[in-house]
Amino acid sequence: MKGIWTKISVFVLMICTLLPQAVLAAGEKADLVVIVADTRGLTGVLHAWGTLYNDSHLYFSLLTIVLIPVIGLLFGTIADIVMRTIGIDLEHRELSEH
Fold it and tell me: Are 53 and 60 a contacting pair, CB within 8 Å?
């Protein structure tokens, strides 16, 4: 079993090492690739989000990093309120551990 994991590890390491060479094989054409979001058919928040992505990847990344925990906190709070409303009390539960 140890031999198969060694072979898999070597294969993954080889792929990670050689993959950038395949990208560099494109030559000068590789410099012409631009990554943008298509915002032609979008409106509202989606259009603003796509425009932010196109304008600055740094601001897009920072806003995403900030928004994910905030949205998680909001959803968790809403779920807690809903569970309390329907009668599920997670604060005063009895543990059945022995």
Answer: yes
Q: How far is Cα 51 from Cα 37, in angstroms, rounded to an integer? A: 8
> Is residue 58 classed as helix, strand or coil in its secondary structure?
helix
Same domain, 3 and 40: no
Domain interval for residue 92: 34-98
Q: Residue 31 corresponds to which amino acid? A: D
The pLDDT tens digits of the residues spanning 25-64 come to 666 666 666 788 889 998 999 999 999 999 988 999 999 9
Residue the block writes with tokens 């080889």: 14
Instruction: For residue 88, give both structure tokens.
Output: 């599920």
**Do 95 and 61 sit in the same domain of this protein?**
yes
State the pTM of this model: 0.53
DSSP tally for the chain: helices H, then strands E: 3, 0
Say if CB 36 and CB 54 are below 8 A apart.
Answer: yes
